[in-house]
Amino acid sequence: MSLLVTGSIGIDTVKTPFGVSKDCLGGSAIYFGMAASFFTHVRFLGAIGADCPFDLKKIFKNRHVDLTGLEVRKQSKTFRWAGSYQGAMNEATTDAVELNVLAEEPPKMPLAYKDSKFVFLANTTPNLQIQLLDQLNKPKFVAADTMNCWIKNHTADLKRLLKKIDCLILNEGEARMLADEHNLITAAAKIEKLGPTVVVIKKGESGSILIQSECNVARASSPCKHSQDGRATKLFVLPAYPATIVKDPTGAGDSFAGGFMGYLAGQNKTDFATLKMAAAYGTVVASFTISDFSLKGLTKITRRNIDSRLNELRKLVHF
Amino acid sequence: MSLLVTGSIGIDTVKTPFGVSKDCLGGSAIYFGMAASFFTHVRFLGAIGADCPFDLKKIFKNRHVDLTGLEVRKQSKTFRWAGSYQGAMNEATTDAVELNVLAEEPPKMPLAYKDSKFVFLANTTPNLQIQLLDQLNKPKFVAADTMNCWIKNHTADLKRLLKKIDCLILNEGEARMLADEHNLITAAAKIEKLGPTVVVIKKGESGSILIQSECNVARASSPCKHSQDGRATKLFVLPAYPATIVKDPTGAGDSFAGGFMGYLAGQNKTDFATLKMAAAYGTVVASFTISDFSLKGLTKITRRNIDSRLNELRKLVHF
Questions:
Q1: A244 and B209: CB-CB below 8 Å?
Q2: What is the ipTM of this complex?
């Protein structure tokens, strides 16, 4: 089943204790698309300016990524981000941002994308995420990412979005902020009540938590039998792959989402067992991303490397 | 196989967002002993002053805890600690400490304890840990805890201790400090080179990491075949039990160690499969400790509750 991603394409400059990567390819849709392409056919929606030095056709060649939705705007400049990481590299410090094309109209949804069944709305304003989603016919499973500034300053829009999606993928700080709750399990359950049946909380080097409830109260035409006294909820906890080579954490979250959604779309299933496998694949793909700068950790591997590391992860958590 | 614990007995006052527990029973040996007693016979070594309001005989009644090594010093006062937790309660702030009896001579090792095979040296000065250890005949598996001030200011003593023990159990901040290394897997491997064949890094709500190498170079009479180019190392990663009721994290680390060492001593084995089970039991016991103030989380459960939660944890990480 094909998977649509809408998100950013960036020219990144990243500093970590392991070096500097100047003007390299980045952006949420790029990391997501590359990660997801190991598992399924990806429909890519995004915009760049005339200044973009990267040939995305070449970069995604033979990777089952449909670039029909890539807009090159002659009068615009590409999104740029500069960031740095220190110490344990758990969090990026943003040194500079130029929104450029991201501050303009969103890219147009190609007609051929409108029947997309699996959809990932990478981090942007919730209002824009809703606009993009509303252009689709009847998606089967929609996931979105968000961040602290939308949680804080665009709360009403975000809550509208949450009623329209099936899955929210966010990091632990964002989850605590959105749910106004320190305990992450409780926070996930609280977020689920805002709409999505699946909540994935990413904890960086400490792994992830996934919960799935039986039905989506907000989207269901009539409340299901579990919707009264707390919905029946399934929980999965997974440590991160214990990577010893971590050069650049940029894109880890979007790669996780790409592996996660890519696997779901590839299987065309969203039952709990498939969601757990998807989270494990997301974890593994992200561990390759962080092993090198920009896309280098992902472009040098094959699906076979991913499957092999998945089996390793399964053994590492077994007791 | 019986298990010796040496550590503190304290009168604690703890404040958390869920309430205040004034002058309650605490201390590393207390939490450890209670946790370990679900799995094996515990030999308890510690000292209190005449002011101690707790009847330890009553508290440990029917719990297979030998109090021969409990010294009540008429002229002394009991160790006191006051601490508080805020927000996600990941770290305690120490509000007040009175070392009292802990600043005096250590308790005398009873003759009947000298043949102890499994030993836990709770956190105190490394020099004192060595003195206690040297009084034992021929222990089979010795584990110790330590903390930032000994790592920083008693480095030489700590390094002497590490050559004498089999297992170091410490938290992630301490591991990073001791190894001078941000990556925890690499840090664990570096610590292993200082002596212990087993290193357990506790990450609080984010679980734990366990590594075991094939041989103990420092203690072996002749280096084994793995000791040259990096020892063959086995790794286990485990998330914490996803507790939603967390009222007081005090004693979580010592309860983890108690469950871990208690299970090993109960099985009289230290192979990798047993170590992994032990870490899972430690995780589960700690999850009960933090569910209530002081010892209340542990005294209201049975081994059956622990086993049931262990099975739950196994299912939660399965994919």
A1: no
A2: 0.89
